[in-house]
Amino acid sequence: SAYEQNVGGIKKLYGNMGMSLKDYAKTVGKSTGEVKDKWKQLGKAQDMVLKDAKEAYKTAGMDANTYMETATQFSASLINSLGGDTVKASEQTKKAMVAMSDNINTFGSNAEDVQNAFKGFSKQNYTMLDNLKLGYGGTKSEMERLMRDAEKLTGEHYTVGDFADTVKAIHAVQESLGITGTTAEEASKTLSGSFSAMKAAWTDFKGNLADG
After folding, report:
1. Dmax over Cα atoms in the chain, in whole Å?
2. Which one, of 164, 137, 168, 142, lies nearest residue 155 by Cα?
3. Cα dist. 115→30, 71, 103, 129 in Å?
4. Alpha carbon distances (Å) from 22 to 8, 42, 43, 47, 117
5. pLDDT in tens, 84-97
6. Closest of 141, 143, 133, 45 to residue 94, by C-alpha
């Protein structure tokens, strides 16, 4: 039931709720021709998130349910910061989820602390930035410093308060520190990483049995 509920949540937040083009057009009060492109975009976005959730056992060290539950906690802010572009939001969702997991695995951080930090960032609350153990304190000015450092690394400009930019900046800093990709690497090369992936995959298997 949790799996079905989470899939429904992803389809509602990122996608077209699994509706046909005709039904979707009715819900928004427009013709099928007017909404066809948007309907396709939403369908692509939801499929991307669901695919990433299914692969999370090896990329983020978590089962699909945990991936979807965590993603929905900040998805509205992410989609809003990207002007409603759910395809871009789905891409940034994966980047955020992998960044959290890589941070947890690298530093042995408490998973809830790192997840709470990202949830805070989505609400422009930076008091838990130090939870990431990247050398930045829990203040807005420290997030600004992180973004300036990220700008030097990527050549892009990041704006404090824009959650998508926050995710990109943290990803850039972690990548420069060699943190990015550690979860996937551990899943393939270490005993503990392999065991975590196996546990997540087993949970997914049970969910898939229920889903048919």
Report:
1. 55
2. 168
3. 39, 10, 10, 11
4. 19, 14, 14, 19, 41
5. 999 999 999 999 99
6. 45
Considering only CA atoms, which of 170, 86, 164, 173 is closest in space to residue 128? 170
The alpha carbon of 13 is separated from its chain's Cα centroid by a whole number of angstroms, namely: 13
How far is residue 198 from each of residues 9, 44, 59, 195, 201, measured CA to CA in Å? 25, 28, 12, 5, 5
- Integer Cα distance of 173 and 132 in angstroms: 11
Query: In whole angstroms, how large is the CA radius of gyration of the chain?
Result: 18
Look-up of token digits 């990483």: 193
Give the pLDDT confidence of 20-45 residue by residue, as tens digits.
999 999 999 999 999 999 999 999 99
Structure confidence at residue 187 (pLDDT): 56
Element housing 157 (H / E): none
Q: List the one residue out of 41, 48, 23 whose CA is nearest residue 84.
A: 41
**Burial (CB count within 10 angstroms: exposed 0-12, middle 13-18, buried 19+), residue 75:** buried
pLDDT bucket at 123, cuts 50 / 70 / 90:
very high
| Residue 126 φ/ψ, nearest 5 degrees | -110, 15
Q: Residues 6 or more apart from 50 whose CB is under 8 A from it?
A: 7, 10
d(CA 33, CA 165): 33
